Amino acid sequence: MGGVAFAPSALAAETESSAYAIEATGLVSIPKTPHVVGSGDESLVDVSLPKDAPVLNAGVLNAKAGDGTAEASVADLTLDLVRAPELTTKLTGGTPKLKVELIKVECEDGKASTTLAGVSFGKKELKVDQVPPNTTIPLDPLVKLVLNKQVKNDDGSTTVTAISVNVLKGQQTLDIASATCAKGGNGGPTEPTKPTEPTEPTEPTKPTEPTKPTEPTKPGGGDNGAGDRPDENGKAPVPTPQPGHLDVTG
Asked: Where do the record's region annotations for Disordered lie (predicted)?
């Protein structure tokens, strides 16, 4: 009996592309802003986050995603963690401002890249041309940066984050310009392979008609041989005398 075969990609859940410009977790929380999943393009200008006590200011935030592609960018960024009341008492020695003129990440078919320009931490300017993936820069005893952070996810997709800020050994994190993508063309399941049609059986050959046996010759000859047959009681028939000629010799 024929069956239906499905390609492996038809059974796996489709991975949607996504992108966001800013996210902060920990003592200061900022949701992914702007955030695009699947397909779309969003931008914000003159942004200060969080609104009640801004630690981040940016001229432009962009996020864009599509089939197998995603990108995010930030322009004219200033990050001043000491301004957050939750961090002021912990960063008693003060922490210099992080400034970036341009940040951009691109992800296409699982391949990622990061572009950084004009990055400085306080009075120190960072050389960030052609930054290798997952480059760690300890800027301060309490602050660590990871540039061009790239992660291969369990579902086969790739996530790239231009700048990942880690403060107080993980008590505060901030991700700037992040994009996730997988290989494109996963818009739907693969058509199942059609089973091979079974071959129709050949008609069986009709048997040859058997030859009828020849009728046996009746004893006694003739068609008037009623006396040759037994009567209804099964007794043998009385023989019928036949005329004959007997020569007499003297």
From this structure: 179-250
CA angle 78, 84, 86 (to 5 degrees): 145
Radius of gyration of the chain measured on its C-alpha atoms: 49
Bridge-based pairing state of the strands 56-66 and 143-152: unpaired
Q: What is the pLDDT of residues 8-37, one digit of tens each?
A: 444 335 789 999 999 999 988 999 999 999
Q: Which of 161, 201, 164, 166 is nearest to 181 (CA)?
A: 161
**pTM higher than 0.85:** no
Six-digit token string for 71: 């990108």
What are the two backbone dihedrals, phi and then psi, of residue 111, each rounded to the nearest 5 degrees? -110, 135
Q: Are strands 111-121 and 124-126 parallel, antiparallel or unpaired?
A: antiparallel
Phi-psi region of 35 (alpha: psi -120 to 50; beta: other; left: phi over 0): beta
Sheet containing strand 111-121, edge to edge, reads: 40-49, 56-66, 69-79, 98-108, 111-121, 124-126
In eight-state DSSP terms, residue 244 is -
Closest CA to 179 of 94, 64, 80, 95: 64
Q: Classify burial at 78, counting beta carbons within 10 Å of its beta carbon; exposed 0-12, middle 13-18, buried 19 or more.
A: middle
**117 contact partners, CB below 8 Å, separation of at least 6:** 100, 101, 102, 128
Task: Give the model's pLDDT for residue 205.
Answer: 63
| 9-26 residues labelled b (16+ CB within 10 A) or e (exposed) | eeeeeebbbbbbbbbbeb
The whole-angstrom separation of Cα 38 and Cα 186 is 12
